[in-house]
Amino acid sequence: GNSVTQMEGPVTLSEEAFLTINCTYTATGYPSLFWYVQYPGEGLQLLLKATKADDKGSNKGFEATYRKETTSFHLEKGSVQVSDSAVYFCAPNAGGTSYGKLTFGQGTILTVHP
Amino acid sequence: SAVISQKPSRDICQRGTSLTIQCQVDSQVTMMFWYRQQPGQSLTLIATANQGSEATYESGFVIDKFPISRPNLTFSTLTVSNMSPEDSSIYLCSVEGGGGGEKLFFGSGTQLSVL
Questions:
Q1: What integer pLDDT is reported at residue A29 of this predicted model?
Q2: Is the pLDDT reported for residue B100 higher than 70?
Q3: B80-103: buried (b, 16+ CB within 10 Å) or exposed (e) per residue?
């Protein structure tokens, strides 16, 4: 089965700082890769995704590139805001028809201070 | 998009009892997924529920402990049976959506505490 190693937190940054959250995975086949985010008091929601090698997913200023050769999907943002404070989860899926079978990383808590 | 209503949002239960969690979706979906998030840990898939067939359980989860019903395309229940404190977790219902079905929508979760 799949496995995910995600950068441990918590991560604390000042506003406008650069963010990287590392994520590497092991998987059989060719999974799609996802970053999910959980804002305080809210449910889990999709932040971005990439479905094949070299694809770049982007949303809300966040980016992540599907690196098949290094089996990585690192999340980056050039200038974080206080509103980005949340828990971030990296998750490959099982591929094929099993879209919903995600393997989640342990989550990285991000806190951004003004 | 899909809107998922999950009930109850939280509960405190006694050891040895059972709790049934309901998940209602505002559109018809083929597959529904139940995840568990134990305190301080990540999400783990419990089972996949298809309408009209038995749920498929992941390694480490069994039907006797986590029976699932899927009576129609918009509703599912997960029961946590014979609870122990180790079952204290957040339980989340999710469904596929979006173009290509590769996006998951999650309910807000049920926070279960077992005393």
A1: 78
A2: no
A3: bbebeeebbbbbbbbbbbeeeebb
